[in-house]
Amino acid sequence: MASRSVGFDSYFPLSFVFEQDVECKSRDMRWDLLAVSVVYTSVMSLFTASSALFFFANFVGIFWHVGIASDPPGHSSIAGLVSNILGKFLPAMFCAYVMYDKMGGRRLLRGLTAQVEKTVLWLGACWVGALTNYTLDFIPISRLTGHDLQQQPGAKAALAIIVIVLFVIVVKQIWFFRQEGRLLKYLKLYALFVGGIVICLLLPGLNLRIHHYILALLLLPGTSMQTRPSLLYQGLLVGLFINGIARWGFDPLLQTGASLQGDAQHGSPLPVIRAPEINLGEALWTANFTWATPPAPRFDGISVLVNDVERFRTYFDDGEGSETSFLWERKPELRHNEYFRFAYMEGTQTWDYTKAGKWNTEGEWTEMKAGPSKVRARQLEESEVIKHRR
Fold first, then answer.
1. Residue 170: helix, strand or coil by DSSP?
2. d(CA 374, CA 370)
3. pLDDT at residue number 249
4. pLDDT of 1 above 60
5. How far is the C-alpha of 327 from the C-alpha of 284, rounded, in Å?
6. Which parts of the chain span the membrane according to its record (predicted)?
7. What is the CATH number of the domain that holds 316?
8. Do residues 352 and 270 make contact, with C-beta atoms less than 8 angstroms apart?
């Protein structure tokens, strides 16, 4: 399966480059599979009058397309991937039944004769939601937590726009419910939802994490009416549910701070790195890095990334085995820049890394800028960590 590549002016261990003059007939089959899946679901939508057949056939087809082709979870073999998706499929089908029978699917789709509108609005929006790793990837919000919103550029503005759009949609849906005489019933339901969310927010030691599959379940009851906007909204929400489960599974609504951290910044102190002692010999270039005393005793070690791969770590109180500097060697003919990041350790925990300092091809050192790096450490296996050289 193809993946997106990012240009980089240096190297990694076991890295490789593609020869420019070599032709290869291999191509990304995901788009061919997408065409087949879209044709299948569109034909099913256009030529079936059964609301149940329409809903469940499309749900199953799109679920397996997302899980196997467009946004599969991490896997080491095809058999492992199929096993993973099968484990999610059965509980997802139970949720699909609840969505169809109890959360507005049947009421919206039953007796609907506008086949083209159903296909374009409901099915089209469902594909948009299911392919959210492509269609909504431009939105700079990865996780809806206060910590992440502070760190992600543009996240607050994007959230404000989303809230405004949702407010307009909610007002319109409230008007439709009022016209049908069902407003009070649904106000009670959403009051119950809000009460549950408030209780979750008050629980000590746990953080509320509204995954997009949970967001879909919360909003789906508000689409239980036969209007064109409801077709669009319900299709999008079902697609979001499919993508969330097929890719990530049923992650919990309440999570600890550690499980939510991921690759976000910790806000921890950063090592103070002195200017390296650089020796540009004829046969070997060396750069010797030293650091200031850590600001607190709990920081008992230091980790160094070279080109975003951990190549050195040491603990300050290891006696004779303790390293007080980091020596990096390279050959003069290596015509690549090298990038260095440093972080304190606390036991086996690695805290925030500095921004990258650069040792360029001319042997000149460029200091790292202030502030933590947003790059997560890509660590080698312990046996591959080399303390002194490549």
1. helix
2. 12
3. 93
4. no
5. 12
6. 33-66, 78-100, 120-136, 156-177, 189-211, 231-250
7. 2.60.40
8. yes
